[in-house]
Specification:
- The complex is a heterodimer of chains A (163) and B (297).
- By secondary structure, chain A is an alpha+beta fold.
- Chain A is built from 4 helices and 8 strands, in the order H-E-E-E-H-H-E-E-E-E-E-H.
- Chain A has a single domain, classed as CheC-like (Chemotaxis protein chec, 3-Layer(aba) Sandwich), CATH 3.40.1550.10.
- In chain A, strands 1, 2, 3, 4, 5, 7 and 8 form a 7-stranded antiparallel beta sheet that branches.
- In chain A, strand 2 and strand 3 form a beta hairpin.
- By secondary structure, chain B is α+β, with helices and mostly antiparallel strands.
- Chain B has 9 helices and 13 strands.
- The chains are: A alpha+beta (163), B alpha+beta (297).
- At the A-B interface, strand 2, strand 5, strand 6 and helix 4 of A face helix 6, strand 8, helix 8 and strand 11 of B.
- Strand 6 of chain A pairs antiparallel with strand 11 of chain B.
């Protein structure tokens, strides 16, 4: 079992069912990001526990979720609507996960990467990856925890200034 | 105290209430603005912005040839008195969740104020200098010499890698976002300067630029202690008591965004103060440093 895997699954289910009235189901395996078709949002948690939570969704699912969230007709979701929807979802999921982590901790505002862009978390390692099915489409929530990466150690040995 | 009369636009550009959306777009383009005040005879009765057009007309697929501006205008027309201060105007915009307001003097509309007019604050160069110095030093540590240029307006930055790190104080609700936008090719040069070899992939490059932002953020945190009042006044538009202006910044983790045609989404509010500074190598801009000072909630 991965770190907080069960809790993340429960919270994702809770958020999707209460906010969107959608049922979701855990899927085995890893969500495959498409360079041109994935929308990602993340929030950071800083404090006693430090890391990031990322939500990754295919564009088609973003459209469905946005239309449902804002009661829009199919095809009517604007980019701003989509940004708002993904931001709201990751914010809610992040808020729930934060409550499970040691206090004091702070949740950041969401950062989003739309199609053609991807988010990376360089000073971290992925500790949890949960894939789900929603409306026949996969999406994922991943947790990245701050760590001293091998790259940082290598960099430290090369630099003139301390880091 | 300065009032908003100094910042307003005049004369007010208006359109007749029974004009069509085709007329609206034409006038918008001719006047190079993103709003028009709607007039019925001698009265101003509403406002139509570009956003209204996008959401209410395009979003609902209304026919622009037959739809009147009065069908999509926002009303009532919320106005600001010319005696209001910038801070009061800011609060007004924030409270009413609008970005455009006519300015009145003795109950007559005399101009137009936009949210951006109230937040286009000139960031004091003495506040930017520590960021520039820290960036130059960090790059020297990365065995790369750079020189800062003059701030630029164009927000479409050419780099494929953007590392974002934030300094935040959740008690004072203030945040400084530091974003480094670096072309992949430049990142590879810096990488080679340090390691003597090419990066093995995008992950190496992201790691490098993220660590660079981390170093800049960490060092600037120590350097900006003398500028807390400037930062608070910049963000809150108010004269601050030095005791109340004390900030304790925490440094977040860096995140990188990979992809061309970069803009940072979810980072910048309408009332943020922002500056983009290019850094030059021997000749061409090597990368861009974006600083965003803003309130967080």
């Amino acid at each position: 079992m991965q770190f907080l895997e069960k809790e993340i699954q429960q919270y994702a289910h809770l958020v999707c069912s209460t906010l969107l009235d959608f049922e979701i189901h855990p899927l085995p395996g890893t969500f495959e990001e498409s360079p041109t078709d994935t929308v990602s949002g993340c929030v950071q948690i800083t404090g006693k526990w430090n890391g990031s939570i990322m939500l990754s969704l295919p564009s088609a699912l973003v459209n469905i979720l946005t239309e449902k969230m804002f009661s829009l007709e199919p095809g009517k979701a604007s980019i701003d609507d989509k940004k708002d929807a993904v931001g709201e979802l990751i914010n809610m999921i992040g808020g729930n996960i934060k409550a499970l982590l040691p206090d004091p901790s702070i949740l950041s505002v969401p950062l989003l990467a739309l199609e053609g862009h991807s988010l990376q978390f360089p000073c971290t390692k992925m500790v949890t990856h949960c894939q789900f099915d929603c409306q026949g489409k996969p999406f994922a929530i991943s947790l990245f925890e701050r760590t001293e990466t091998p790259f940082k150690k290598r960099l430290k040995s090369r630099l003139k200034l301390p880091i | 105290m300065e009032n908003i009369g100094l910042y307003m636009h005049s004369p007010v550009i208006s359109i007749n209430h029974d004009a069509t959306l085709v007329d609206f777009i034409q006038k918008l383009n001719d006047a190079q603005v993103d709003y028009l005040i709607v007039k019925k005879q001698d009265d101003y009765i509403g406002i139509v912005t570009n956003t209204d057009f996008m959401r209410k007309a395009l979003g609902k697929r209304l026919n622009p040839k037959s739809t009147k501006v009065s069908d999509i205008m926002s009303r009532p027309l919320l106005t600001l008195d010319i005696s209001a201060s910038k801070a009061q105007a800011q609060q007004f915009f924030r409270k009413n969740k609008i970005e455009h307001a006519p300015v009145t003097e003795q109950n007559q509309i005399v101009g137009m104020l936009l949210l951006n007019d109230t937040v286009k604050k000139v960031i004091n160069p003495k506040l930017i200098d520590p960021f520039l110095e820290t960036t130059v030093l960090a790059l020297q540590g990365f065995m790369t010499e750079v020189t800062p240029g003059d701030p630029i307006e164009d927000e479409n930055l050419p780099g494929e890698i953007t590392a974002i790190i934030k300094l935040s104080d959740h008690t004072q609700n203030v945040e400084i976002t530091i974003a480094l936008n670096v072309p992949e090719e430049v990142s590879a040069i810096i990488y080679k300067n340090i390691f003597g070899e090419d990066p093995k992939g995008i992950k190496d490059i992201c790691n490098l630029i993220a660590e660079l932002s981390n170093i800049i953020g960490g060092n600037i945190k120590e350097k900006i202690g003398d500028h807390h009042i400037d930062i608070m006044e910049l963000i809150y538009f108010e004269n601050m008591d030095p005791k109340e202006a004390k900030i304790h910044f925490e440094l977040d983790l860096p995140t990188t965004i990979v992809g061309s045609g970069q803009r940072i989404f979810g980072e910048e509010k309408a009332n943020a103060a922002k500056v983009i500074i290019p850094f030059f190598g021997e000749k061409n801009p090597m990368f861009f440093l974006t600083l965003i000072f803003q309130e967080i909630q």
